[in-house]
Amino acid sequence: MNINYDGRRFRKLAADDGVTAGYRQTADLIWANFSGGPIRRGNVNGICGPDGTLRFAYTMVMDGGDVIVGHAVSTPERDADGVLVLREEWERYGPHADSGVSYLAEVTDAGDTR
């Protein structure tokens, strides 16, 4: 799946916390900023593979002042309605160590994911 992420926005499925990420891309380099809910500021920096898979590191500053760092691999999929969904396998380091899988859907219109 050849995808250019520049200008696309994503929001986590099954979470109504208001966190939205805005992606940018130049060649294979991707980066994103995100915030909302308990996240004051977050950043992503990484690489987009030829199949649209993203490999990146991230940092987040939480409302309480905690700083969280980790890495993730996001694999693009299409849902039944054709919406671009990222299956994100993530891992956090340090005192907030954890791992899991999240799904982010592209925001297509005024904050809606479809």
Keywords:
globular; Lipocalin; 9 strands; 8-stranded antiparallel β-barrel; mainly beta; 114 residues
Characterise the protein shown here.
- The structure is a single chain.
- With 114 residues, the chain is mostly beta strands.
- The protein has a single domain (9-107), classed as Avidin-like (Lipocalin).
- 0% of the residues lie in helices and 64% in strands.
- The chain has strands at residues 9-12, 20-26, 29-36, 39-48, 54-62, 67-78, 84-92, 98-109, 112-113.
- It has an eight-stranded antiparallel beta barrel with strand order 1-2-3-4-5-6-7-8.
- A hairpin with a 2-residue loop joins strand 3 and strand 4.
- The protein is globular, with a radius of gyration of 13 Å.
- The mean pLDDT is 92.
